[in-house]
Amino acid sequence: MKIERHKVDTRGTQILLSLPKDIGYIIQERQIQNVEVRFDDGRYISAEQRRKAYATISFAHQRGAEIFRKMYKVYGIKFNEDM
């Protein structure tokens, strides 16, 4: 994938990409509205670093509410259960 042009405006950054394959049929067939883009800046992350990152994210996701409840209790802030 190649960045052809980009422009920054009040809505954010507009990027025009060109792809080596025709994927228009996939976008239409699956009605894709959002995409995820990864920027290759030449840095490398090892499999071990990736495993640790995913484990940390998973742990934070699973324990996040519990940690916030404890923090709020320590600082005397009421915890909103709707969060």
| Strand percentage | 15-25%
- Main sheet record: 2 strands, antiparallel
Which blocks of ≥5 consecutive residues have pLDDT under 50?
none
The total of helices stands at 2
Q: By helix and strand content, what is the structural category?
A: alpha+beta
Order of helix and strand elements from N to C terminus: EEHH
Cα end-to-end separation: 39 Å
- Beta-strand segment tally: 2
Evaluate the radius of gyration.
Answer: 21 Å
Fraction of residues in helix: 40-55%
- Lateral arrangement of strands in the main beta sheet: 1-2
How does the overall form come out from the CA principal axes?
Answer: elongated
Look at the structure and give the mean pLDDT: 83
Feature tags:
single chain, 83 residues, alpha+beta, two-stranded antiparallel ribbon, 2 helices
Structure report:
The chain contains two helices and two strands; from the N terminus they run E-E-H-H. By secondary structure, the protein is an alpha+beta fold. The chain is elongated and about 55 Å long. 0% of the residues are buried. The mean pLDDT is 83.
Topology:
Elements: E1 2-9, E2 12-18, H1 24-29, H2 47-75
Antiparallel strand pairs: 1-2
Give a brief rundown of this model.
The chain has helices at 24-29, 47-75; strands at 2-9, 12-18. It has 83 residues and is of the alpha+beta class.
